[in-house]
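Summary of Year 1 activities. Much of the first year was spent building the evaluation harness for sequence design. The harness presents a backbone, in tokenized form, and records the residue chosen at every position. We chose the following record to illustrate the format because it has been used consistently in internal testing since the harness was completed.
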């Protein structure tokens, strides 16, 4: 029999949790049923420690505590549990969206949010999914109809959640819009979610609008920056006109650029380019918040 031999402070040190968290898990999830010493204090066994370590490891992978406990209790060999179930959900979501199965896609998203934290869903499921859909469209293995359906679904599903993210009052407003005539919103949608997670006040306009309308909206909203996305090279001429007009009529507004088309011309667009990863985005955004950072 595996008898208890560790007090709660020892267990906390062994598994990297604080005693308050361990007690909360016991109450909420009945994760452990420790023995009691003669004086009534909890004493934990080696099995208790191993179980907590397993749950903590799964939590670091992105699982919620309740899901990790559920998986632990499953009557299967734990080595058979997928290392990252998020990958499996991402593949399922891709199949559902490219087969226009909206209800099934909603079910998969519900499952993802029930299992993982919001950050995990966005960074490890939605982000790579958006990239995969964009890449498949560029290669011609899916149509623009598939891309538009996926974009509309994800935008509708995530817009409500993103509005629940708190805005940092010390961070400025950013306007996000595609280049004039540009309709490919996927990359811009993901960047918008990144901004909202970081606390920025974001206005997402999506598909491109004519240059005069874009200038009018920019002057009305007075954002600290306008982020424009351009995927198709044929739209670069209109993009250049938009940049020129914003710089002339709203000279205090920073301009950020992303998308395949502009990334092919680093010598032309220079420090307006946002880059393609978290570190590059943070570096570009730091110019908007010189005193507080991102």
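For this record, the design step produced the sequence shown next.
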């Amino acid at each position: 029999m595996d008898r208890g031999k560790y007090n709660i402070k020892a267990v906390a040190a062994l598994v990297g949790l604080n005693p308050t968290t361990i007690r909360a898990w016991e109450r909420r999830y009945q994760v452990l049923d420790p023995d009691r010493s003669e004086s009534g204090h909890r004493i934990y066994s080696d099995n208790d420690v191993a179980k907590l370590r397993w749950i903590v490891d799964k939590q670091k992978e992105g699982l919620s505590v309740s899901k990790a406990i559920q998986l632990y209790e499953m009557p299967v060999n734990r080595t058979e549990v997928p290392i990252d179930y998020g990958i499996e959900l991402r593949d399922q979501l891709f199949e559902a969206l490219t087969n226009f199965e909206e209800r099934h896609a909603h079910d998969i998203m519900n499952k993802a949010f029930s299992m993982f934290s919001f950050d995990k869903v966005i960074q490890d499921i939605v982000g790579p999914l958006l990239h995969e859909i964009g890449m498949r469209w560029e290669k011609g293995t899916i149509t623009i109809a598939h891309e538009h359906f996926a974009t509309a679904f994800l935008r509708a599903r995530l817009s409500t959640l993103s509005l629940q993210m708190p805005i940092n009052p010390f961070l400025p407003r950013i306007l996000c819009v595609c280049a004039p005539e540009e309709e490919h919103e996927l990359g811009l949608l993901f960047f918008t979610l990144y901004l909202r997670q970081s606390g920025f006040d974001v206005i997402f306009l999506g598909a491109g609008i004519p240059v005069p309308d874009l200038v009018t909206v920019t002057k009305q909203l007075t954002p600290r920056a306008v982020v424009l996305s351009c995927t198709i090279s044929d739209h670069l001429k209109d993009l250049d006109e938009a940049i020129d007009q914003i710089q002339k009529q709203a000279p205090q507004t920073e301009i950020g650029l992303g998308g395949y088309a502009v990334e092919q011309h680093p010598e032309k667009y220079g420090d307006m380019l946002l880059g393609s990863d978290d570190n590059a985005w943070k570096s570009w955004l730091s110019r908007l918040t010189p005193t507080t950072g991102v």
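The chain is about 55% helix and 10% strand. Quantitative recovery figures across the full test set are reported in Table 2.
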